[in-house]
TrEMBL record:
InterPro entries: Cyt_B5-like_heme/steroid-bd (IPR001199), Cyt_B5-like_heme/steroid_sf (IPR036400), FA_desaturase_dom (IPR005804), Fatty_acid_desaturase (IPR012171). The chain crosses the membrane at residues 164-189, 195-217, 268-291, 311-330. It comes from Bos indicus x Bos taurus. Keywords: Fatty acid biosynthesis, Fatty acid metabolism, Lipid biosynthesis, Lipid metabolism, Membrane, Transmembrane, Transmembrane helix. The keyword Cell membrane does not apply. This is Cytochrome b5 heme-binding domain-containing protein. Residues 1-35 are annotated as: Disordered. Its main location: endoplasmic reticulum. Gene3D superfamilies: Cytochrome b5-like heme/steroid binding domain (3.10.120.10). GO terms for cellular component: endoplasmic reticulum membrane. GO terms for biological process: unsaturated fatty acid biosynthetic process.
Length: 451
């Protein structure tokens, strides 16, 4: 099995002097001891991959694309063909991620979602069943091979320039911010009392922390990253029957006379349904159910610490019921933040059924950025660089602004849009997109009378 190696130089897309690299750090921001601990695993992977093997079977893309069912899943990574059907349920990122990519070239998706491919090789080796036939291209014929090659060159360049290495100081300051704001909230209640104005004020301070299942979130979020804005594959746009979004879903609902509610007014009730109930109700209940179904008591214990900490810290001032109200207010504010900050980058963008596009195009066409400023970076947690976040999900967020000009340049080279807008316009586009989808539903509903 062969994997592409990093180039010795910087590649042709960018000069190293274009980027402010700052201080050097260990890979992924981990201390040297942690890196040394992984060396045996890497050496074992290299040793196993260098063992003699029998001649591999060869397959055409037409053959591979037939294996795209839940009970029959093949993937192509660096021209090697893997049968992941029996292993899908054990996949740490969830079985649906593999199912969404079945029958496709998953080289870029694999590299994007795995920060340490050397370790993953140990799991891939037993799943290897063959390779692409020599006459077959590296990816499906409908994909732009030059764009794929340019993006892969860009990624290799960024790896050479250590853009995937974390700055521990940055994340230490972020943790310090969370702790300081939580401590400040306690001091304010202790000094000024627990009146309504004080309670509302400290709720804003406490929205920096959250308490939901990390595994549940990752399982859901990985699907979103792999297939953003793809109907039936991206859970973040699975908002029916309460909303219709994009251009296709509203027309489908209208033609089929589906009317759970008046979707023409959905941009108005977004503020009293989606935004306030997303985290306090849906996210929390769904994550609890997921932990219970998996019998994941360790994850459940970690989530419980969020509530225990709030009851210990604020229980003496508010009592049990008052602390529950405080937690709800915190999650209510957080819900509005999540609804707008995450959806402003996706709802106004292209939504479609599966088109099997290359990784770069599939991410750029379904995401948009918000202009950089100190406030925008802080308020959105650097999610204002949503395009870079999607292209390089394992990249530390403090490096997004450094790579953004290179992504924009690659978009211009291949005629792809690179959308960057003011934050208030981005917020407004959420409502405008919902209004547009509602109008599409109304038009389709009225043009197709019941038979």
């Amino acid at each position: 099995m062969t994997f592409e190696e990093k180039p010795e130089g910087n590649g042709s897309l960018v000069d190293e002097n274009q980027l402010d690299l700052g201080a050097k750090h260990q890979a992924n921001g981990k201390p040297a001891a942690s890196v040394r601990a992984k060396l045996p695993a890497r050496q074992e992977a290299k040793a196993k991959c260098s063992l003699p093997r029998k001649s591999l079977s060869t397959y055409t893309w037409q053959e591979i694309q037939r294996h795209n069912q839940e009970t029959d899943q093949w993937l192509v990574i660096n021209r090697k063909v893997y049968d992941v059907t029996g292993w899908a349920d054990r996949h740490p990122g969830g079985r649906l991620v593999l199912n969404h990519c079945a029958g496709e070239d998953a080289t870029d998706v694999f590299r994007a979602m795995h920060p340490d491919p050397d370790i993953v090789r140990l799991y891939l080796k037993p799943l290897l069943i063959g390779e692409l036939a020599p006459e077959e291209p590296n990816q499906e014929r409908n994909k732009n091979s030059q764009l794929v090659e340019d993006f892969q060159e860009l990624r290799r360049t960024l790896e050479t320039l250590n853009m995937f290495n974390a700055n521990l100081g940055f994340f230490f300051l972020h943790l310090a911010q969370v702790l300081i704001l939580e401590a400040l909230a306690w001091v304010i209640v202790w000094h000024f009392g627990s009146g309504w104005l004080i309670t509302i004020f400290i709720s804003f301070l406490l929205t920096v922390a959250q308490g939901i299942s990390a595994k549940w979130w990752n399982n859901r979020h990985f699907q979103h990253h792999v297939k953003p804005n793809i109907y039936s594959k991206d859970p973040d746009i699975d908002v029916g029957p309460f909303f219709v979004i994009g251009d296709l879903q509203p027309v489908k609902y209208g033609k089929n006379k589906i009317k759970f509610i008046n979707y023409e007014k959905q941009h108005l009730y977004f503020h009293v349904s989606w935004a306030p109930f997303l985290i306090p109700v849906y996210f929390n209940l769904d994550s609890i159910l997921a932990m219970y179904r998996r019998r994941d008591w360790e994850d459940f214990a970690w989530v419980s610490t969020f509530y225990i900490r709030h009851f210990i810290t604020f229980g003496p001032f508010y009592g049990i019921f008052g602390t529950m109200v405080l937690i709800y207010l915190v999650k209510l504010l957080e819900s509005f933040w999540v609804a707008y900050v995450t959806q402003m980058s996706h709802i106004p963008m292209k939504m479609s059924t599966e088109e099997n596009q290359d990784w770069f195009s599939s991410q750029v066409l379904t995401t948009c950025n918000v202009e950089q400023s100190f406030f925008n970076d802080w308020f959105t947690g650097h999610l204002n660089f949503q395009t870079e976040h999607h292209l390089f999900p394992t990249m530390p967020r403090h490096n997004y602004h450094k790579v953004a000009p290179l992504v924009k340049s690659l978009c211009a080279k291949h005629g792809l849009p690179y959308v960057n807008k003011p934050i208030l316009k981005a917020f407004g586009d959420v409502i405008r997109a919902l209004k547009k989808s509602g109008a599409l539903w109304k038009e389709a509903y009225c043009m197709h009378p019941e038979t």
